[in-house]
Amino acid sequence: MKAAGDANNDWVVSHRLIARHSSSERGRAATLAQVTAAFERFYQGDAASGLAGLKESETPLVSAEYLRSLKARCPGGMAVVTGRPRAGESPQLAAT
């Protein structure tokens, strides 16, 4: 999977796995956009159907307090690169 590239892109890897290993034609024919939408629905949650997002069960690696202390030591500003869309931003990053 890594040799195909984009191994850090969860949507692309999920799409490849589904296309390669799905037992149904529908699964094998799923587009990247369809896989991305389903992935985001499970991760972000879906208020309309009452589905809680998997992001709610994640354990932060660092606390908001620690990020604020780092920010205080960076008078020129600080950036955190996550690889996630802004909607997937963790509460710790939003709190800084």
Description:
It is a single chain. The protein is mainly alpha-helical. The protein has 2 domains: 1-58, no CATH class; 59-96, no CATH class. Helix content is 44%, strand content 4%. The protein contains 5 helices and 2 strands; from the N terminus they run H-H-H-E-E-H-H. It has helices at residues 10-21, 25-28, 32-44, 64-72, 91-94, and strands at 45-46, 51-52. Strands 1-2 form a two-stranded antiparallel ribbon. Helix 1 (10-21) packs across helix 3 (32-44). The longest helix has 13 residues, at 32-44. It is elongated. The model has no long low-confidence stretch (mean pLDDT 83).
Strand arrangement across the biggest beta sheet? 1-2
Order of SSEs, N→C? Answer: HHHEEHH
Roughly how much helix do the residues carry, as a percent range? 40-55%
Largest sheet: 2 strands, antiparallel
Molecular shape: elongated
Q: Give the count of helical stretches.
A: 5
- β-strand amount: under 5%
- Please state the structural category: mainly alpha
Topology, number of strands: 2
What is the arithmetic mean of pLDDT? Answer: 83
For the record, the count of structural domains works out to 2
Distance between the first and last residues' Cα: 36 Å
Stretches where pLDDT is under 50 for at least 5 consecutive residues are none
**Roughly how many Å is the radius of gyration?**
17 Å
Question: Any descriptors?
Answer:
96 residues; mainly alpha; 2 domains; two-stranded antiparallel ribbon; elongated
Short recap of the structure:
With 96 residues, the chain is mainly alpha-helical. The chain is 44% helix and 4% strand.
